[in-house]
Design a protein that fits this description.
The complex is a heterodimer of chains A (about 140) and B (about 130). Chain A contains four helices and no strands. Chain A is mainly α and about 140 residues long. By secondary structure, chain B is mostly helical. Chain B has one domain: Up-down Bundle (3 helical TM bundles of succinate and fumarate reductases). Chain B contains five helices and no strands. In chain B, about 20% of the residues are buried. Classes of the chains: A mainly alpha (about 140), B mainly alpha (about 130).
Chain lengths: ~140, ~130
């Protein structure tokens, strides 16, 4: 039986180059994949702010007002807009993943086409959500 | 040869199956499916109510449909988020103890904020 490699053993195997940098040509598929992760982690952090939003409302008018003064600051509105786009991007690309999971559109042409559809749809949906939020009367 | 009492077959199998198979993968898809309608509704609601004053916000969450929708959204989003961030940590944190510690802390944080968000919704909905 050959010796088990331990944590101390240095095994030098060839490694593929790191995903970022000059090593690979730009591909929409890998770019959208890492964007899915980045938006996912961003949305996890954003969920904390949304939990604080409803918590401040439950605490009372004073705390709700304090949260709102942050949310309505330029930085707060930037976070809000970024969160909404990140959510809609992650949603659209997530649907693309679910389509692959059931076995469709997983050839090279459709992977690329679906990727561009996701990019356009995320921007259009973000614009649609904010327009609808302001234009539809209460 | 091995110097312990485990059989060669047992050593080859290592730690063995964790006995949860594709459960993580499957629940990530189930919560994703639930989040399609829930998050579309939620992102629209946030865009609409982020300017709401206190009485408007209270009246909105008092609506039973809204309260149930918010509770379902927070359950699905925090569950889905914990599963997703777990995979990210597993992929990028190599040191075993740090990986386990990060996952434990991350999951506890999801429970804390999930519980707080749901409690806040219920408190308003039941008339605080």
């Amino acid at each position: 039986m050959s010796a088990k490699p331990t944590a101390k053993t240095v095994v030098s195997r060839p490694l593929s180059p790191f995903m970022l940098g000059q090593y690979y040509r730009f591909q929409i598929s890998s770019f959208l994949s890492i964007t899915h992760r980045v938006t996912g982690v961003g949305l996890a952090l954003g969920s904390i702010l949304l939990a604080v939003w409803v918590m401040s409302a439950a605490m009372g008018p004073l705390e709700f007002g304090q949260f709102n003064s942050f949310a309505h600051s330029p930085f707060g509105l930037f976070l809000l807009l970024g969160w909404s786009w990140a959510l809609l991007y992650h949603l659209c690309n997530g649907i693309r993943h679910l389509v692959w999971d059931v076995g469709y559109a997983f050839d090279r042409k459709n992977v690329d086409l679906g990727g561009w559809i996701v990019v356009v749809a995320s921007v259009v949906l973000t614009a649609a959500v904010w327009s609808a939020a302001y234009l539809i009367p209460a | 040869m091995s110097n312990n009492l485990r059989s060669p077959l047992s050593q080859a199998r290592g730690l063995g199956s964790a006995k949860d198979g594709v459960h993580h993968w499957w629940v990530q898809r189930l919560t994703a499916l639930a989040l399609i309608p829930l998050s579309l509704w939620f992102v629209f609601s946030v865009a609409r109510y982020h300017v709401a004053d206190y009485p408007t916000m209270m009246a909105w969450i008092h609506n039973p449909y809204v309260a149930v929708g918010l509770v379902l959204y927070f359950i699905a989003v925090f569950y889905h988020s914990a599963l997703g961030v777990q995979v990210v940590i597993e992929d990028y944190v190599g040191t075993e103890w740090l990986k386990i510690a990060s996952i434990v802390l991350m999951k506890l944080a999801h429970f804390v904020f999930g519980a707080a968000a749901i409690f806040a919704v219920l408190k308003i909905a039941f008339g605080a």
